Amino acid sequence: MDHLTDDFGYMVFNAETMRSLLPEDVYKSLKHTIQRGEDLDITVANVVAGAMKDWAISKGATHYTHWFQPMTGITAEKHDSFIAPGPDGKAISEFSGKSLIKGEPDASSFPSGGLRATFEARGYTAWDPTSYAFIKDGSLCIPSVFCSYGGEALDKKTPLLRSGEALNTQAMRILKLFGTDARHVEAKVGPEQEYFLIDKELFSRREDLVICGRTLFGAKPPKGQELEDHYFGAIKPRVSAFMKELDEELWKMGVFAKTKHNEVAPCQHEFAPVFAGANIATDHNQLTMETMKRVADRHGLVCILQEKPFDGINGSGKHDNWSIATDRGVNLLEPGVSPHENAQFLLFICAVIKAVDEYQDLLRISVATAGNDHRLGESEAPPAVISMFLGEELTEILDCIERGVPYGGTEKNFLEVGVHVLPSFPKDSTDRNRTSPFAFTGNKFEFRMPGSAMSVAGPNIVINTAVAESLRQFADELESASDFKSALNSLIRRTVKEHKRIIFNGDGYSSDWEKEAERRGLLNLRTAVDAFPYYTSEKNISLFERHKVFTEKEIRSRRDILTGSYAKIVIIEALTMCDMAGKDILPAIGKYIGQLASTVNSVRAASAPVPYHESNTLVRLCELSDAVSAALKLLDSAVSRARTEPDVSKRALVCRDELIPRMAELRRAADEAETLVERGCWPFPTYGDLLYGI
Ligand code: ADP
Ligand code: MG
């Protein structure tokens, strides 16, 4: 063992630690709970809690908290110390099995979308033993689900776990038909995380960054990302020190931090872990985002996770790499070498194709936020139209199977599924299309639409459930077939025929594609507000109910939470703009107008010709000052309209159709003024300062 691997997971109550600290029977019983979802006996929980407490205290922890993921998209925690009053006024340390299993935070201030009235404020958190407890900042964190007293999910973890169960159930039915030794399958997820690092001092001088996490004003800098000199470039020392500490912190907490590099935009970087089970990967991504912010602060930096911090500069996404694997370590999206493995592979690929085509709307909703709207379809991220990239070879193979014609690869051959070996196709040829929203990259799919700030729970809940539904239908059909092979062949052929419209291997950024997609009947839900209503369509409610991922009530609440928070974000941004325009920008323009006017007056008094520059700038700035005030007034009244609109869907529409265009108008005038006002007079750091300030 070396220092690097020795320290890994030092702060995690993982299997190895449990095995060494728990009595054998207790460990076994806990393992069954973890692996088979069996209930945890309270006497076992008491022993586990005691061992956890002693372990945590030995590592310097003083508190414990249930660590959960409410609908805000970030994590929540409420810390209690291990300290309890003992005899004779002394203190003892205490942590019971009951406190480990269940917490009861006052949950009235978390979004519930009407699931929980304020008079029944309490919700409860329950330990998710499939995700290890860990120590963060002196507290033992217990990964937990968060539910209302009626049992409705108020978080992102509960439905993710349920969707994993649905996928397992249906995938196992298929695997049994192929004769499997696997007992369990699980979605594997590797989220690539993009982010910006900005100097803290510069950041703190911009109200828009502090309040909204993104700039709402700012003229283009002389240099943006056009030279493409940042991508994979040498990492600056300050950034490198941040990344090093981030890795070390994450390793200690059991996150397999793997890849780090500079991204396309100046100040933009990427982080990727080694993939893990969807539940753990989601927990770890939340932990990573949180740790990024904390570590950045120690380096005099701010980590921006918002999707579009700078206009005209690439925003940040989070590629959700997704595959399915068995407990025997077999990746079901790996073609394999025998006809048998190939057939199984093709069936799983078809399940994903069908899922993506039938649930385009849900995939779109799973990435729909006010922030992500600024990226999708902006030639930096996939468009709002969902399509799949399979690579030429795989597409051609599917095409030949569908049409029943010979495959024109290396040897011309008919491809009967389950009889012939698939022609090998080079893996790297499937990794080149960066414009596709949902790309097959050799042995996994990469969903590229999620925004950098969001939890990957949402997208993975949809992928897991939609694929589970395809597999359910496949299993129903194949289980009752008299001739498995011919049923399999016709099922694959039919699925390709019915769903091939979703496959598109070309340039997803081109405008031709939008037209072509429309011709194919694919959905183009340009904004989040267009997408939200689809959540509660009959088709989608029945999908989620059938697989017990959401009840109808839970879906409706989630639609309202998403719609409501879209409106809240836009309104906060609009108010921030009004504040900055009124208190910073107009006074700055006025001040400089005053300076110019006095120059012009003095020149005139000296009977010299007034220079064009001064007189033109003066006139233009007076016009712009009026334009800013006028736009400000219009925006202000639109904000009032939005805020007083009681219906949440209508409020979101006012935000999209009235606030956002007016914000753009206000920005246009202010940004032009920025280019004319003397540097020293401008009230906050410019794009150039921010992007090149490290
Ligand atoms: P890039 O897409 O930038 O070329 P990689 O292909 O190395 O990067 O992988 C990106 C992410 O995908 C990593 O987090 C990696 O662990 C994850 N990944 C790799 N294989 C799988 C898989 N079979 N299932 C899910 N995620 C995977
Ligand atoms: Mg990738």
Per-chain topology:
Elements: H1 3-6, E1 12-13, H2 15-21, H3 24-36, H4 42-58, E2 63-68, E3 76-77, E4 80-81, E5 83-85, E6 91-93, H5 97-101, E7 102-103, E8 123-127, E9 133-136, E10 139-148, H6 157-178, E11 185-199, H7 200-204, H8 207-212, H9 237-252, E12 257-262, E13 268-273, E14 276-277, H10 278-298, E15 301-304, E16 318-326, H11 339-358, H12 360-365, H13 370-373, E17 388-389, H14 392-403, E18 438-440, E19 445-447, H15 457-479, H16 484-499, H17 511-520, H18 528-531, H19 538-546, H20 552-605, H21 612-644, H22 648-676, H23 687-691
Parallel strand pairs: 2-10, 17-18
Antiparallel strand pairs: 1-9, 2-3, 2-4, 5-6, 7-8, 8-10, 9-10, 11-13, 11-14, 11-15, 11-16, 12-13, 16-19, 18-19
The chain binds adenosine-5'-diphosphate and magnesium ion.
Explained architecture:
By secondary structure, the chain is an alpha+beta fold. It has 3 domains: 3-154, Roll (Ubiquitin-like (UB roll)); 163-550, 2-Layer Sandwich (Creatine Kinase, Chain A, domain 2); 565-691, Four Helix Bundle (Hemerythrin (Met), subunit A), CATH 1.20.120. The chain contains 23 helices and 19 strands. Strands 11, 12, 13, 14, 15, 16, 17, 18 and 19 form a 9-stranded mixed sheet that branches. Strands 1, 2, 3, 4, 7, 8, 9 and 10 form an 8-stranded mixed sheet that branches. A hairpin with a 2-residue loop joins strand 9 (133-136) and strand 10. Helix 9 (237-252) crosses helix 10. It is globular, with a radius of gyration of 28 Å. It starts with a helix and ends with a helix. The model has no long low-confidence stretch (mean pLDDT 92).
